[in-house]
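pinned: reference chain
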Amino acid sequence: MAETIRSGFHAGGWKELAFEAFREGVTIHWIRRFEGEAPGVALLKYEAGASVPRHLHVGLETILVLEGSQSDETGRYPTGSFIVNAPGSEHSVWSEDGCVVLIQWDRPVQILN
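pinned: its C-alpha coordinates
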Protein backbone atom coordinates (compact mmCIF):
# COMPACT_ATOMS: atom_id res chain seq x y z
CA MET A 1 0.00 0.00 0.00
CA ALA A 2 1.45 3.37 -1.00
CA GLU A 3 2.00 5.98 1.68
CA THR A 4 0.69 9.51 1.31
CA ILE A 5 2.91 12.49 1.96
CA ARG A 6 1.76 16.06 2.62
CA SER A 7 4.25 18.72 3.67
CA GLY A 8 4.17 22.15 5.25
CA PHE A 9 1.14 21.58 7.49
CA HIS A 10 2.71 23.57 10.34
CA ALA A 11 3.16 26.55 7.97
CA GLY A 12 -0.35 26.52 6.46
CA GLY A 13 0.42 24.14 3.60
CA TRP A 14 -3.08 22.67 4.06
CA LYS A 15 -4.65 25.91 2.74
CA GLU A 16 -4.10 24.83 -0.88
CA LEU A 17 -5.84 21.45 -0.43
CA ALA A 18 -9.38 20.66 -1.58
CA PHE A 19 -11.93 20.07 1.18
CA GLU A 20 -15.38 18.47 0.88
CA ALA A 21 -18.51 18.61 3.04
CA PHE A 22 -18.37 16.52 6.22
CA ARG A 23 -20.91 17.96 8.70
CA GLU A 24 -22.68 21.29 8.88
CA GLY A 25 -19.92 23.91 9.24
CA VAL A 26 -17.16 21.28 9.02
CA THR A 27 -15.26 20.24 5.87
CA ILE A 28 -12.76 17.41 5.39
CA HIS A 29 -9.68 16.67 3.32
CA TRP A 30 -9.02 12.93 3.42
CA ILE A 31 -5.34 12.03 3.59
CA ARG A 32 -6.19 8.36 3.96
CA ARG A 33 -9.74 7.04 3.99
CA PHE A 34 -10.72 4.09 6.14
CA GLU A 35 -9.89 0.89 4.28
CA GLY A 36 -10.36 -2.49 5.91
CA GLU A 37 -8.59 -2.35 9.27
CA ALA A 38 -6.46 0.69 8.31
CA PRO A 39 -7.11 3.91 10.26
CA GLY A 40 -8.53 7.05 8.69
CA VAL A 41 -6.42 10.22 8.53
CA ALA A 42 -7.78 13.63 7.55
CA LEU A 43 -7.77 17.36 8.00
CA LEU A 44 -10.97 18.82 9.43
CA LYS A 45 -11.77 22.51 8.99
CA TYR A 46 -14.35 23.97 11.40
CA GLU A 47 -16.04 27.27 10.65
CA ALA A 48 -16.44 29.60 13.65
CA GLY A 49 -19.27 28.21 15.80
CA ALA A 50 -19.33 24.77 14.12
CA SER A 51 -19.73 21.61 16.19
CA VAL A 52 -19.83 17.84 16.03
CA PRO A 53 -22.42 16.09 18.23
CA ARG A 54 -21.58 13.77 21.11
CA HIS A 55 -19.89 10.65 19.80
CA LEU A 56 -18.21 7.47 21.03
CA HIS A 57 -14.63 6.61 20.14
CA VAL A 58 -14.61 2.96 19.09
CA GLY A 59 -10.84 3.18 18.59
CA LEU A 60 -8.06 5.60 19.45
CA GLU A 61 -8.36 9.16 18.11
CA THR A 62 -5.43 11.58 17.92
CA ILE A 63 -5.72 15.27 17.00
CA LEU A 64 -3.18 18.02 16.33
CA VAL A 65 -4.65 21.54 16.22
CA LEU A 66 -2.96 23.32 13.30
CA GLU A 67 -4.84 26.63 13.48
CA GLY A 68 -7.47 28.22 15.73
CA SER A 69 -8.85 26.31 18.69
CA GLN A 70 -11.02 23.27 19.29
CA SER A 71 -13.02 22.61 22.44
CA ASP A 72 -14.81 19.76 24.16
CA GLU A 73 -16.29 19.20 27.61
CA THR A 74 -12.83 19.03 29.21
CA GLY A 75 -11.30 22.20 27.79
CA ARG A 76 -10.21 24.48 24.97
CA TYR A 77 -7.23 23.42 22.84
CA PRO A 78 -5.38 26.19 20.95
CA THR A 79 -2.99 25.90 18.00
CA GLY A 80 -0.26 23.34 18.70
CA SER A 81 -2.36 21.24 21.09
CA PHE A 82 -2.12 17.46 20.74
CA ILE A 83 -5.17 15.55 21.96
CA VAL A 84 -5.53 11.80 22.50
CA ASN A 85 -9.01 10.33 23.02
CA ALA A 86 -8.94 6.74 24.23
CA PRO A 87 -11.16 3.97 22.90
CA GLY A 88 -14.43 4.00 24.83
CA SER A 89 -14.31 7.76 25.52
CA GLU A 90 -17.05 10.10 24.34
CA HIS A 91 -17.46 13.84 23.90
CA SER A 92 -18.84 16.54 21.65
CA VAL A 93 -16.55 18.99 19.83
CA TRP A 94 -16.91 22.63 18.81
CA SER A 95 -14.84 25.59 17.72
CA GLU A 96 -15.84 29.09 18.76
CA ASP A 97 -13.32 30.81 16.48
CA GLY A 98 -12.86 28.14 13.80
CA CYS A 99 -9.97 25.73 13.49
CA VAL A 100 -8.10 23.23 11.35
CA VAL A 101 -7.04 19.92 12.88
CA LEU A 102 -5.05 16.94 11.70
CA ILE A 103 -6.94 13.87 12.94
CA GLN A 104 -6.43 10.12 12.92
CA TRP A 105 -9.13 7.65 13.89
CA ASP A 106 -8.42 3.95 14.41
CA ARG A 107 -12.12 3.30 13.70
CA PRO A 108 -15.01 5.55 12.66
CA VAL A 109 -16.77 7.18 15.62
CA GLN A 110 -20.39 6.42 16.56
CA ILE A 111 -22.64 9.49 16.80
CA LEU A 112 -24.68 9.27 20.02
CA ASN A 113 -27.31 12.00 19.52
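why pinned: The chain has one domain: 26-111. Residues 26-111 form a domain with the Jelly Rolls fold (CATH 2.60.120.10).
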